[in-house]
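Deviations from the work plan: none for this task. Representative record:
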Amino acid sequence: MTKIKITLPDGSIKEYAKGITAGEIAFDIGRRLGQDAVLAKINGNIKDLSIQIKEDSALQIITIQDKEGLDGFRHSLAHLLAAAVMELWPDTKRTIGPPIENGFYYDFEFSNPISEDDLPKIEKKMREILPKWDKFERSEATAAEAKKEYPNNQFKHELIDEFSKDGKKLTFYKSGNYSDLCRGGHVSSMKSVQPDSFKLTHLAGAYWRGSEKNPQLTRIYAVAFPTKKELDAYLKMVEEAKKRDHKKLGRELDLYTTSELVGKGLPIWLPKGETIKREIENFAIETEKKAGYQRVSTPVLAKKELFIKSGHIPYFQESMFPEMVLDDGAYYLKAMNCPYHHLIFNHKTRSYRDLPLRISEYGLCHRFELSGTLSGLLRVRMLSMNDAHIYCKKDQIEKEFGDVIKMIVDYYKTFGFENYYFRLSLWDPNNREKYINEPENWESTQEIIRGVLKKNNVKFEEVMGEAAFYGPKVDIQFKTVTGREESMSTIQLDFIAKKKFGLKYADKDNKENNEVYVIHRAPLSTHERFIAFLIEEYAGKFPLWLSPVQIRILSVSDKFEKYARKINEEFLKNNLRSEVDSRTESISYKVREAQAQKIPLILTVGEKEEKNGTVAVRTIDNKIHFGVKLDDFLGKVMKNIEEKKIKVEL
RNA sequence: GCCUCCGUAGUUCAGUCCGGUUAGAAUGACUGCCUCGUAAGCAGUAGGUCGGGAGUUCAAAUCUCCUCGGAGGCUCCA
C-alpha cells in the first residue's frame, strides 16, 4: 500500500497509508485529541474529518478549543435542536442553523406558533436524543434526491437550487436517525458532548434570508460552551453585564427618565445627566476650537424645500417625522444638520483661501426610527449630534480625514476606550445603481482613505457594499458590555453635496471651481448613544471631570455641619460640584448612600478634621485617606479634572 | 414595522397559571426620637383608579380583545 507523509503543526512528519482520514490520524496521535477533534485543516483549508487524504499534506487537527472547532460543536448542537423540534412537531419546516458568537440558533416555520414556555420541553428532548447520536455520516445527493427529503419546504428547496447550481453535489450529514442538508463542520462524535453544556435562551422573529420582504420565521437562540463550567461562567458574565446596563444605571443615578406622555425614543435629561452632557460638549467645543472648527447653531425645523434640495426627501423621508403644514408651506423637523451647513457655506462667495472650512454644531436632530429598534439611550428618536462638516478640495481630503481620525483616537484615549476598531465601508462596483455614478471618485477617494487608516496605524477592516450612496465612509465599531456591537463614531466622504447645493469657490486664477468635497464627521456620536456607552463602560463610576456630583461632604454630627459648609463653599468657589450631607444619620448610613450614588470623592469631617483643617477622603475604590490637608486635596482634585484623568489618586 | 416576552406604590418585587375579604413586602420619601467616625440606628405616617380602554362574569390585578409603554431579536442605523 502507498504511504503518504503528513506534516503536523509542530513540524514532525508521520507516515500513513494513502486514503486515511484526518479523524483516524487524530486518534492515532492521541485518544483525547481524537475525541476533541472537530475539523481538519489540510494545507490550510478547512475540511471535514472524514475526508480521505491521498497525498503528502500538512495537517492541523482543529479541536473544540479552536474557533473553528467551537463553531463545529455549536453547529452540531443546532442539528440536535432541529432533530428535537422535528420529533416534537413533525410538520415543522426547518431552514438553517448556524453557530454564532456564544452559541447557535435555528430558524423554523412552525405550523402552530410555539412560546418560550416550550423551550424546556425542547431542551429535554435534545438531552433525550443526544445519547443516541454518535458520528456524523456524510453522504451526497442530487438536487432531486435532496428535495425529496423536504416535502413542501420551500425554504430548503430554495437552498438546494442555489447550492446545486452548475450541477454541484449536495451533502447531507446524519447522526442518530436525523439527517440534514449541510456543508459539514461537526464534532467527530456527539459522545463527547456534555448534556449540560448548552441552554436554549429565547425566541425571536427573523426574516428568511434577512429580508423583510420574506416570511418571518421563528428563531430559537441557544448558548453553548464545551463544558458546563464555561457555560456557567458565561451566564454569570451576562448577569454581571446586566448590572451595568445603562437603562438600569441611568434610572438609579438619576441621569435621565422617559414618559409615556412625551413618547418613545424621547429621553428627558435630568440635572445629573445634563451635567455629563454639558461636560462632554464643553470638551468637544474646546477640542474643535483648537482644530480650527467654527461653531454654528441652526434651527430644528426647516421647510420641505430644503430637504428636497438635499435629496433627503424622498430618499430619507420615511426616517423623518411627518411634515407640519403651516400657512406658508410644509415644515420638517431636521434629521441631519448638513443641509443647513451647506447653506452656511453658500451664504457668501467662497475663495480657495477659505478651504478647508470646518463648520461644527451640536445639532438636535429628530429621526423617526422604527419603534422596534428603539432601546434606552442607544437608539432614540431625538439625537444630539456631535456634528461637523469639512468643506475641502480633493487634495485636502487626506489631511482632513487623517486629522479627524487622530481626533477620534485622542478622544477615545481620554475616555479610556480600548474595545473598538475602524470599519472602512466601500462601494460595490457590481451594484452601481445603489451609488452615485462617479466610479473614478469612488476608487480614488477609497484609496486615499485606506492610506490614511494605514498611516495612522489603526486596526481596521474593509466591507464592500456598505458605503453611503454619496461616498465611502469609516465607522468606528464599539462593543458594549452586553456584547452587542454598535457604531460609535462615523466619518463620511460626500461627493454629491457639491451638486445638490452648487457648492463652489473661486480658485487662485479666479475661476469658479465646483470640486468641493464634504466630510461629515461625528467623533462623539450623539450625546444619547455616547453617554449610554460611557455608563456601561464605567459601570456608572464616571471619571471625576464627568461626575455629576464630584464631592459629597458628610458631617459626623450636627456639631461639624458648619465646618462642612465652609469647605463646601471653598469647593463651589473653585467650580467643583460639591454638596453637604448633614442629616443626623449614622456615618455608615451616609457613606453607604453616597457609595450607591457612585460619588467619586466622599469626605467625612468631624472633630479631628475641624481642628487640623483636614478632611478624611474615601475614593471610589473604597480606600480611605485620613488627615488629608485641604489645600493638597483641592490642588490634586483640580489637577485631576484639568487633565481629565480616569482615576483619582491622592 | 414584524416576531417573542414583559407592565402591580418613586424603585425592586410577591399575588396572575387555577377570577372571590379592606392588593402585600422591602427600599426610598415624610415626621419624631437618637448626635452617631466610614456600606443599613429605632418608631410612626403617607404613597397604588394593578399602564390605559372595552368586553366576558354575580364578581377582574387575575380571562378575552384593542391600545400605550418597555426588553430581546429581525430589518434599518449615530
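DSSP finds 20 helices and 35 strands in chain A.
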